[in-house]
Amino acid sequence: MQNGPWGSGGSQVDEKVIEIANRIKNSRPPKKLIFSGVLLLLLIIGVVSSMYKVDTEETGVVLRFGQFSGFSEPGLNFKLPFGIERVYLVKTGRVLKEEFGFRTVQPGVRTAYTKQGLEEESLTLTGDLNVSDLEWIVQYQIADPYKFLFRIKDTEETIRDISEAVVRKTVGNSNVTDVLTTERAELAMAIEDDLQKILNSYDAGVRIVTVKFQDVNPPEQVKGAFNEVNEAEQQKESLIFQAREQYNREVPKARGVARSKILQAEGYAVERINRAEGETSRFLALLTEYKKAPEVTRKRLYLETLEDVLPRLEEIYIMDGNGAGAIPLLPLRAGVKGETK
Questions:
Q1: Closest Cα to residue 169, out of 195, 204, 139?
Q2: What is the pTM of this model?
């Protein structure tokens, strides 16, 4: 009879298994060594788990036994291991952004956007019962990381819900022309103020940086007409700007010319007054001399007048009083003064 797997050959296998088991039992390390290894492993785990890094844009919120313990600054920090202290890292140094009506698909070198599936989010009813396709962003910073984490369950979603509600309320109180053209900046500022007030009442620990309308368009069915209105408004603003520019250029110029004319007139008036006063003084002086010696003064004035008038004449004729004819005149002074003979 041959030895099968369960015959004498099987007993030999059992003996080998027992022999190997005895060797393993005899080679088992002592309990002290095992205890030391476990302690060393726990020590390594404790040291590694007690170290953590906080980036420059982050603030660490430290909880000890689930209670708030403090904040940790950027850099390498330490905490109590084995779950005694837990650290939540919050990006307080970064401006966070929530997008409405569109989403950024590929941020970076070649940014792409999409509106697919967001039509209900972007369509907004205005106060005059028109519909506008509104895209906007809300930028905010975390002012208090502890409140941001634990005052509200889902702060990001809360900010989105409140932002959408405030935008729809503000736009719903305005007409479509204001939303699409001239009042966009004022509406964005009003939305920013209302949103900040509501978040402050929730004690969310968030500071709103800005609310900005990225793109505001009418629905496709009436987009052409609204674009024409927008172009007309822009042309109106351009013409007003040109008129103001012309006004600012021409009015100061006219005022300068007017001021120059006034100064010239005032100078001419002063000159005429001074000349008149001088003539008056000269006449009074002559009158005084005339009263003293009338005949002599009369002849002197006559000769001075002739001396002033005669050099201006081109030709001078002196007639004889008896009618005999013209008396020859030798122009001795003509060559001296350059007078015409």
A1: 195
A2: 0.54
